[in-house]
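Researcher: Hi, I'm a grad student and pretty new to this. My advisor asked me to get structures for two proteins we've been looking at. I'm not sure of the right format, so I'll just paste the first sequence and hope you can take it from there.
Model: That works fine. Here's the first sequence with its structure tokens right after it:
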Amino acid sequence: MTRCLALLLLAAAGFDHSTDWPSYGNDPGAMRYSTLRQIHTGNVDRLKLAWTFRTGKPGSEAIPIVVNGMMYVTAPDGVYALVPETGELLWKYDAAPMALRGLAYWPGSAGLHPRVLAGNGHFLLAVDVVTGKPAPEFGNQGRVDLKKGVLGDLEDGQYELQSPAAVFEDVVITGCSTGEGPPSAGPYGDIRGWDARTGKLLWTFHTVPRPGEPGSETWPPGAWKNRSGTNVWGFFTIDVKRGIVYAPLGSPTDDFYGADRAGDNLYGNSLVALDARTGEKKWHRQLVHHDIWDYDLAAPPALFDIRRAERVIPAVAQITKMGLLFVLDRVTGEPVYGIEERAVPQTEVPGEVTAKTQPFPLKPPPLGKNEFRLEEMYDRSPEHARFCRELFAANQMKIGGPYTPLPLEGNALFYPSTLGGGNWGGVSVDPSLGLLFVNVMHVAQWGHMEKRGSGYVRTSAFGRYARFWNPETHTPCQNPPFGEMIAVDLASGDVAWRSVLGRIDALEAIGVRDTGSVNLGGSIATAGGLVFIGAANDSRFRAFDSKTGKVLWETRLEASGHTSPITYMGRDGRQYVALMAAGGGAFLGGGLSNSLVAFALPDVPRTLLPESVAKAVAAAAEARRGLPKVGAYAPLALPPGGAKALVAKACGAGCHSIEVVTSQRMSEKDWDAMVRAMVARGAQASEAEASAIVEYLAKTLGR
């Protein structure tokens, strides 16, 4: 098989690779823009399903990449290489757990084959694309242990690489996912650069400054030690010309209580520009001071140029959970449209010290809803309207504005929620039109603080993460729209158009239309005048007209694409649009699938693929003879009795759906780690209940 793959890659050497999609954002600056125009506003309504590939496990948020005639993608059970024109399997490397959101590509050098790099739990895994196996020269037989060097005084801690690394020249740059709730101690969220050839550590940037480092004055003495969070769990972008990597950082732990970290807490919730070769800081811009709302930055900072008269501004745009879009000069960090510090409400929680002001961009206006009046309470259908009124009254909610601290009495209600606003899907940009596209959802959060031990924790009748919606239907409790697609004119900073994104079938069945829906994921833009997105929680894939915001095409999917699509030109002469339609992490409660789908125009004349493709596919099938069939996933129905009811209560609410659990097969130790992590993130279970759940799952879904 290795020889066939090598020939296949050689055959692709003469292909026009500008029509590939070589990284999650296409270009290193993540404009998510394609110059392809075979699919355009005049024919997009003729798109048809071209192929479906099924991974071994469901629930991926991965963004595939296409380079040198190969498609690479991660799923919860491994790394896959596919034929991008047909979806046929070339190789699979079995590994679990794998990164939720995708992988990166390194083109090779000095006799080394190209590699794909992805998170494998707390390891960075490098797979040789020719052999389909870990690259032996990298780290320890293809893996680097990312926990080494970030545990401080701790023996162990929660640490994963869930999003793609960034690759610049021969440097691989990684962030991490760490704990977000109490206790505040955990692995450091440092950003690090690694040698792409050997896996050797090249540099480290301390995201919580050590004593004497710039920014340490924004922390109390000693508060940096073993401080977790303050991490890039989302996406990096790179200015290749200037050698700068842009890092969007999350909040420090604990997400909702910061009495032990009085101050602004750099570099939490900051966009940081680093020298990609050395890790030296160029500049930073903090977008939330002393975060106690879980307003992480996670979306890719999109890089583009703004043309004003004869001036060209190299810009970076950061969409936030707050629904605010910050546009900065990417060389200096200075705002393009202006930023002002505005006074915000102050906390009454003993020991907590909230920031007096928070930064707001002068343009564009808030893209996500951040204010609420009682007359906006949902009233379009009687059943849901009654639920929302009763939810509001029974929990003594007090309406607040942006950055409202949670009270000790009653419950605060304010927009947006911990899910956004905007979220990790990010933006796309059409540089030819000077338009930026972003999807947002309008959901509030509510809750209060309670004394627990020596500190305070966020809680509510719905647990740690309470959103102002019906948790069974995920329908928000204000009047629609619940989700929107928005275009921003980059020359002026003004909103060019807003369109409803998504639908709720149950409401449409009773005559309530144009509601939009909650959504997670991102969009792409094309020279064909289109914006593609599958993020809405209605299991549909759509194309909008870039200039007007009109929906031109819509198709049903098995599950929602809580990720971003890609587009590329096949060697057969057809443009494809592909999407992992697997339901993502099920934060919004939708169904799960294991499907990666690709669409194309059915009436385009096609060129035959090189003979090497068929040979490589046949060799791959022969190599897998006798192995389990790929794509045979089905969630297991939990048997009655035991802790089944506890599993449904603790694991089927809040962030996830029950299929996230029932599709897993793990050891008792791994089940214990997963259940403890879910409880730490808000799942409702006592210590005794958690132990019973672990015992039940290990027996029922053991490995």
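Researcher: Oh nice, that was easy. Here's the second one.
Model: And its structure:
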Amino acid sequence: MLESDVVVSATTIIATSYALQVVEGLPDGICRILATGAAKAPEDRHQSAAELLVELNAVLASPQESLSFGSPFPAMKLPVRSETSSAPLAPSIIIKPTTIRRQQEARLGRGKPSRQQRLGTRVPSKRLAIAAAGAAALILCGIVFLVRTPKVPVRIDPIEPTPGVTVAADDERAEVAGLGGADRILAQLEDEIRADLPSDPADPRIDAIRGRLIALHRQRYGTVDAVAAAKLMARLAWPADALRRENINKDELAAAGNGDEAHAPPPIVAILGDSRLKHWDRANSIAFSPDDRFVVTTSSDRTVRVWEVAGGRQVQVLVGHAGAVLSADFSPDGMIIASAGIGPEIRLWETATGQQQGVLQHETSYVSKVAFSPDGRTLASAGTDGRIVLWDPANKRQRRLPLAGHRDIVSALSYSPDGKWLASGGRDKTVRIWNAESGECVQILTQHTASINSVTFSPGSDILAAAGDDKTVKIWRIPVTDAKAEPLRTLTESAAVRGVVFHRDAKTLTTAGADCVLRSWTLDAPGEPRTLATGSADFTDVALNHAGSIIASTNAYGRVQLLNVATDEQQIAESRNAHEEKLSSASFTRDGKTIVTASYDGTIRYCDAFSGRHHNMLRPHAASFKVRDIALSRDQRFLFAAFQFTSGSCMLFEFETGRKLATVGGYWSWAVAVSPDGKFVATGNRPSRGTIATDTIAVWDTATWKRRTEFPAPKLDIVSVAFSPDGKLLSGACADGTVWTWDVGTGAAKLMSTAHESACHSVDFSPDGQHLATTGRDCLVKIWDVAAGQCIHTLSGHTAPVRFAKFSPDGRILASSANDGTVHLWDPDSGKLVPGSSFHLGPPGGSIWRMDFSPEGRHLMTANQNGTAYVLRLRGRAN
């Protein structure tokens, strides 16, 4: 302890004692100690700290001395150390003068009661008075001893707690206690914040105050002091306040507004990442324009998007479908785009303007495929009823009766380049070849053993390839003379084949596999195929431009890839500062200076919160193993990441350097959470493929990385985990819709009834630990009373499964995000929407997977399926 600290503490205590008129009645022994310590002659003063402590012990142990105060005071021994002791110098008794003053005022009937009184705890004021007097004597004599004698290190051990006296019990509380307690720190910081502080979040004075508030919030997390600290945080400038909407790339802002910059949600002040060639949900199909300048893609995010091949820029976003869009095609002149999906409508769009030109009604629940004939006079559509309808797109009516024959959904459709044939494939495992002019079925091929996903003709129209769920691509020469004849060749892959396309030489095929691999096959050369590209998600479709120079593909995470045929390299280089796949998590650091994002592309990235610029990336594995979740320790020293990786489910990194410190588990981990004190990490796991283990929540000791305990999941996968603010409870969300809480100490489990009718997606505790928010596939958010285990609010407003819910640092707001591209802000006390606080951030079917509040609660960050993170400014600085 510094001498200045001792002086301040002693002065405060003695001044308070005099003000309360307790010093005048001090016992004679205490007065003698004070007189000896203040003696002018060195020989009359205490010659050592040990001598001082021995005398003080004798006084405090005397019954006569304590009886002079009119109430018994328990004998109290102060430890005596030698002058050369190396124990840390620390105050043993922490007295709050405000507490004594409040007690006196309460007895006189004025002033507001202390917090102890409000909580029903009796504080013996006379015991506090004598404790204050004793501490004053000790500290005052110590001052004299330090000032008037050679500096000899004196160490004082903490004493046992005494009623009415706060004792610093551990290192984390020592800082708060040494500065006079949380109340005093909060009062001091509030006075400093009221002063004329600069608005620049990078100013050193602001940074110092933020640091003290962060330390207090961490040390008192889960208490009223932490909530009070959070409210003070909101009155300061923070790094994210430096973000400006005008600094966002115009193309990114337009993408956020579904193609129109003016429609981008006003709260957005930063967009992290690159949205080029990325949908907000599964991408289902792709096709090139006749001039090869554009590609059109469809997605389960309910949009059709047109992209510029040269730079990947989004040109058009076509919105109008009520459900997932499954297929789209350009007319041969490039003027019209036809699209279809969930629902009976086939929509016709003007390519140049994006305006809808007409709607064709297919007599089925949804339309799986559309394809223009080479002359553009006919548009074929296939539906769930097994029929193929041929349309006149100019007149918007059917040309003839539908082509009937398939016994199940028609899932593949393609015209031959010469326009003579129309090939179709279905879930009935058959491929049918139709005369395009007459509509006659000329051949039925039955060699596949599972659903057909794609059919395509060679450039000469004389060879047909069909790909299916039976993991094969079968090749036939057209016309087929014998329906029972074996194919020319069968190509076998390791998983279902989603798409297939011929190259211009008619000897090469490219396939898109459900095993996340694009392959190139040479028909006249036996052997294994060549791998063109790999990804972290199933490929869903593949196309070749008319020049034969670029292969385009889509995948289940919404990504579009363009590969140069000659070099096998990406036509458009991936941004070094952006994730390639959807984000699984996003988080602000506790000091608000860094934003951390994680993705299914296997990477973790750091961004500067002042500017939104990327400055570091972690790729723990050479291969792309999905990062499912991340969590930061509260002291910001460590980063924990949950992986879908069989040999290690959770990894520990040193946050500043990114150095990997440990790997644990043998599961696929879906979620990770760190206890408030940083001593434990919980992972929500599912068994890796090929094992018979059960789903569990594992709790790991971060000191040894040994498993401390394991809670078996009562039902299905644990998809989200959270510790209560006091670290005593652990909550987990299950894929069957249930939510469980476990007592970390005893392992006792408690079921929050059936929280949601189907899968539960997330759990989050309120800052005070009294409430738990859950989200589910049933489109609902629920708030639970933790102690009672009862649902107190059911929040409805989203129109799609709700992915995540997060309490603000002060607990006054609950944010929720869903698969409908929206974020809602709720008042958790009333269960009502905060007026004007519903934001449409993505397309109608866009998924927002995670969110996090900045430490001061003014900014909200979203982790989006298109690989970007949005930072929203919810409100200005508090006054």
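Researcher: Is there anything I should tell my advisor about the second?
Model: You could mention this: The chain has a mean pLDDT of 80.
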